[in-house]
Amino acid sequence: MPEGLTYDRALWLLETGEEDLPLPAESLVDLTELIAPARRMGEPVARVRDRLVQLGIPVTDPAEATRAALPRVPLLHAG
Predict the structure, then answer these.
(1) Is 75 exposed, middle or buried (CB count within 10 Å of its CB: 0-12, 13-18, 19+)?
(2) Burial classification of residue 49, based on how many CB atoms lie within 10 Å of its CB (0-12 exposed, 13-18 middle, 19 or more buried)
(3) Is the Cβ–Cβ distance between 15 and 39 less than 8 Å?
(4) Is residue 18 within 8 Å of residue 32, measured between CB atoms?
(5) What is the distance, to the nearest Å, from the Cα of residue 44 to the centroid of all Cα atoms in its chain?
(6) Full-model pTM
(7) Is 28 helix (H, G, I), strand (E, B) or coil?
(8) Distance CA 69, CA 53 (A)
(9) What is the DSSP letter of 19?
(10) Residue 77 needs a FRET pair 20 to 30 A away by CA distance; which of 3, 19, 37, 65 works?
(11) CA 34 to chain centre
(12) Residue 42 pLDDT greater than 70, yes or no
């Protein structure tokens, strides 16, 4: 168990919010799946990612996911 994380908080961290279904241990948790527990727990996304990794859950790097998504964000053209 990661330091500072109780058993109850770990279970809460692993819930997806969809009828309390747990995060799938065999698939990579993406950025959108990190945001929900971070908001629910009032924790930074990076801390949630670190704790999931410490629990053995494969998680995408939020910084890399954000950099990859930025080119797809439509830009407002000043006209």
Answers:
(1) exposed
(2) buried
(3) no
(4) no
(5) 9
(6) 0.67
(7) coil
(8) 22
(9) T
(10) 65
(11) 2
(12) yes
